[in-house]
Write a structure and sequence with these properties.
- The chain has six helices and seven strands; from the N terminus they run E-E-E-E-E-H-H-H-H-E-E-H-H.
- It is an alpha+beta fold.
- The protein has a five-stranded mixed β-barrel.
- The longest helix is centred in the last third of the chain and has 18 residues.
- It is elongated, with a radius of gyration of 20 Å.
Length: 246
């Protein structure tokens, strides 16, 4: 039976039979993978603990008829362990895992940028920065905006998303792709504060120096705009997003 190796982040697991599990992962070279892990629910399993959500692993798989089978697993980073003692960071991480699974639709199709983005975001949740921990909500909002951009839904926070006229503009429409001018503004479009649009742009571009000392009202409005944008482009809300402390 042919085999292959890859690195992956475990996104989700569910039971299969009496002792097995199906593991859904986002991998470096093969995109999203659903594979069977034989016997991992038994207490004698050698690598059951390494196949929990948030695990960053190096693994070997054997090609199967319906599902590939995991034959070896080595832990690279246990992202989940530090998060269990930090509820805001843990729930933000859950949203990241759900988003990655939703955005990478086709199995076994390369999705390197999504993989690297997820690993970097989970690492940021675990370690923060040397000059102070970044708030989990800002890390999450940055991840969501950048993951959507990689998937082809890059928002505009300056120029008009519809006609392209130079901004900044005050109205925001998730359906039209971001900030819009007064001519293009649809009825009911939000009017976020200029500071909010500036923060959204910084999070999308990874300009973390511009995200320090953000007022709570701006951070909350930023999260609301991000959630609305994500919900529109994914067609429905992320279930795990309701548990995030905003």
């Amino acid at each position: 039976m042919p085999t292959y190796r890859d690195e992956a982040v475990v996104l989700r697991t569910h039971k299969l039979g009496e002792a097995d599990r199906i593991i859904t992962m986002l991998s470096r070279r093969h995109g999203k993978i659903r594979a069977a892990a034989k016997g991992v629910r038994r207490t004698t399993s050698k690598f059951g603990a390494r196949l929990e959500p948030f695990s960053h692993i190096d693994l070997q798989l054997a090609v199967g008829h319906t599902l590939d089978v995991i034959t070896q697993v080595e832990s690279l980073e246990a992202f989940g362990e530090p998060l269990t003692d930090d509820y805001p960071a843990y729930t933000a991480g859950q949203v990241m895992l759900e988003t990655a699974e939703r955005l990478v639709v086709e199995e076994s199709e390369p999705a390197l940028q999504q993989y690297l983005l997820l690993v970097g975001a989970l690492r940021a949740l675990n370690h923060g920065t040397s000059d102070g921990r970044r708030p989990p909500t800002l890390i999450l909002d940055s991840y969501l905006l950048r993951a959507l951009a990689v998937a082809g839904y890059a928002p505009s926070f300056s120029d008009c998303a519809r006609c392209g006229v130079a901004g900044p503009h005050r109205a925001f429409s998730p359906a039209l792709g971001g900030a819009v001018c007064e001519r293009c503004r649809p009825a009911g479009a939000a009017r976020p504060a200029p500071e909010t649009l500036a923060l959204l742009g910084a999070l999308l571009e990874g300009r973390w120096g511009d995200t320090r000392q953000v007022p709570d009202r701006v951070a909350r409005e930023t999260s609301g705009i991000t959630a609305a944008f994500v919900a529109w482009h994914l067609d429905r809300n992320l279930r795990s997003l309701a548990h995030v402390e905003r």
